[in-house]
Amino acid sequence: MRTFDDAGIFAGHTVLVRSDLNVPMDNGTITDRGRILASAGTIRDLAEAGAKVIVMSHLGRPKGAPDPQYSLAPIAPELAAAIGRDVAFAADTVGEDARTKAAALEDGQVLLLENLRFNPGETSKDESERKEFAAQLTALADDFVSDGFGVVHRKQASVYDIAAALPHYAGSLVRAEVEVSDRLLNDPKRPFTVVLGGSKVSDKLGVIDNLIDRADNLLIGGGMVFTFLAALGHDIGSSLVEKDRIDDVKGYLDRAEAGGAHIVLPTDIVMAASFAADAEHWVRPVTALEDTPAGAEGLGLDIGEESAQAYADIIRSSATVFWNGPMGVFEFPEFAAGTKAVAQALTTEAGTDAGRLTVVGGGDSAAAVRSLGFADDDFGHISTGGGASLEYLEGKTLPGLEALA
């Protein structure tokens, strides 16, 4: 992967930077600025070194045409605050406004283009259509810096095709993400613990498959745990289960028994009468989840206090920890305790080893730690990757990184 050590090599150049500014929005208000703050370093370094910086990103899932609810216009002032300098905004991607404002940039100035996915060429499966859009983007600049780790697993025009047409480099964010992921895969300090949660076990099968023989412990929580419990024959009530994945889970349990990572499952579960913040709820051991109040089937929405404490103890005694996926429905305060316990145990001050590495694997996990009041610097690394981070740890080749070779 081609990187740069000195942003000064871009002085006087116009540089296209592919960032990931796909932040969560609520009626036009940004609810988590994490990806903006993570993207700011490379953009600021380039501008301070005298480059003319054109920032590209997507937001949400528009259908290849302009859609006001997905405009990047609200991102521009937030990015400006993060980098400490003005950010101009182009109301299109490769149209007249973008071309005019790009041509007018002076050294050290920054321009943000409108949502890349307003152009159908960005995500097209047709290679020629993608390349045509990439060519229109490359006409704006001299160099390309890939710094959106959250999209490097996508074969898209601004991620993959553009690298073939311009001198290309990985930005500091992508470089840091790759270095951390490589350390997890190839040189983890032990004990190495992987914590996996979230709703579906199918989303994590590739990670389990690639890490079960590399990690020392696999701690399982979230909705995905009920497929594991069902595989062991437990009655899980109305809890989420992927029946078509039970055989896969049984295979991983067998691999663990044969010498793979120690798979740790909850011993107690917070059950609820319905999926609601104010639902009636109770705690039961996993051997008696069917023991419910009269007339209630019960569904699991969090790991119990006993399990949370056991997980926290393992995490605090581990030298390397990777966590992806909440332990429960953390958006509901009554069902956030398991996720909060895991997050607290991952904080840099909580471990027994001062040199340990704790990694929060992006996506819902990153949103959870921030919503629960933790700061980014409480952890060794918070990934911006989500799906890209998981695919890297699955051992897959990511198109956006392959293009930077």
Describe the protein in words.
- It is a single chain.
- This protein has about 400 residues and is α/β, with parallel strands linked by helices.
- Helices cover about 30% and strands about 15% of the residues.
- It contains 13 helices and 17 strands.
- It has helices spanning about 35-50, 75-85, 95-105, 125-140, 170-185, 205-210, 225-230, 245-255, 305-315, 335-345, 365-370, 385-395, 400; strands spanning about 15-20, 25, 30, 50-55, 85-90, 110, 145, 170, 190-195, 215-220, 260-265, 270, 280-285, 300-305, 320-325, 355-360, 380.
- A six-stranded parallel beta sheet has the order 5-6-4-1-7-8, sandwiched between helices. A six-stranded parallel beta sheet has the order 11-10-9-15-16-17.
- β5 (about 85-90), α3 (about 95-105) and β6 form a beta-alpha-beta unit.
- α9 runs parallel beside α10 (about 335-345).
- The radius of gyration is 23 Å and the shape is elongated.
- The model has no long low-confidence stretch (mean pLDDT about 95).
Shape estimate: elongated
Radius of gyration, in Å, reads 23 Å
Strand line-up in the sheet with most strands? 5-6-4-1-7-8
Ends distance: 4 Å
Give the averaged pLDDT, no decimals.
95
Number of strands: 17
What percent strand? Answer: 15-25%
- Helix and strand string, N-terminal first? EEEHEHEHEHEEHEHEHHEEEEHEHEHEHH
The biggest beta sheet reads: 6 strands, parallel
Percent of residues in helices comes to 25-40%
What class, by secondary structure content?
A: alpha/beta
**Low-pLDDT residue spans:** none
Number of H/I helices: 13
